[in-house]
């Protein structure tokens, strides 16, 4: 990329990188590391024609999340094109309009409410994931 003087690197972090995340602290910490690493690379390689983008998704309906598709939980087919549209436009973004909205609202909340919603989100996710796993086992 440096020789060609162009290139795009898209790092996938998570919304978990943006705030504290009780019960998933290790995951959130690794994602925060990716977020900061990407920011440093952006600066280091900006004058070499390389774009480094960091995306911080909320829930996407994938194998890992085990979540079902909703307005706020897009399929990868909806999420990925939306992220690609932001290459060169937003170096750090949530990547999808509904995630931008959710991210903005959550990060505007007071700390005690973020704590509560993080705990709710994690336990809801754990419940949905185990339901999905059980459904798959039954098939
Ligand atoms: N889905 C979400 O809600 C969400 C939200 C925020 C951030 N993210 C981030 O998005 C990224 C992608 O996740 P996803 O939701 O797209 O998950 P996914 O659909 O389960 O895909 C994960 C991919 O990683 C591969 N993989 C897993 N463990 C691996 C290993 N040890 N070595 C090599 N490859 C491995 C899997 O390969 P196989 O298919 O062969 O198993 C699969 O291709 C992750 O970094 C995740 O933290 C996801």
UniProtKB/TrEMBL annotation:
Q: Which Gene3D superfamilies match?
A: NAD(P)-binding Rossmann-like Domain (3.40.50.720)
Classification via InterPro entries: NAD(P)-bd_dom_sf (IPR036291), SDR_fam (IPR002347), VLCFA-Steroid_DH (IPR051019)
Q: Which GO terms describe its molecular function?
A: oxidoreductase activity
Oxidoreductase is among the record's keywords: yes
**Keywords, in A-Z order:** Oxidoreductase
Q: Spell out the Pfam families in the cross-references.
A: adh_short
Task: Provide one Gene Ontology cellular component.
Answer: endoplasmic reticulum
Entry-linked PANTHER family: RH59310P
Q: What is this protein called?
A: Uncharacterized protein
Organism of derivation: Paramuricea clavata (Red gorgonian)
| Classification lineage | Eukaryota, Metazoa, Cnidaria, Anthozoa, Octocorallia
């Amino acid at each position: 990329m440096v020789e060609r003087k162009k290139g795009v690197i898209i790092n996938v972090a998570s919304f978990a990188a943006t705030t504290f995340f009780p019960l998933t602290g290790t995951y959130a910490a690794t994602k925060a590391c990716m977020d900061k690493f990407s920011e440093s690379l952006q600066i280091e390689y900006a004058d070499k024609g390389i774009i480094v983008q960091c995306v911080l998704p909320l829930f996407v309906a994938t194998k890992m999340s085990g979540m079902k598709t909703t307005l706020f939980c897009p399929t990868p087919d909806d999420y990925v094109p939306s992220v690609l549209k932001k290459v060169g436009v937003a170096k750090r973004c949530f990547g999808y309009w509904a995630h931008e909205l959710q991210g903005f609202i959550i990060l505007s909340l007071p700390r005690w409410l973020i704590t509560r919603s993080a705990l709710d989100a994690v336990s809801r996710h754990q419940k949905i994931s185990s339901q999905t796993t059980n459904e798959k086992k039954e098939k």
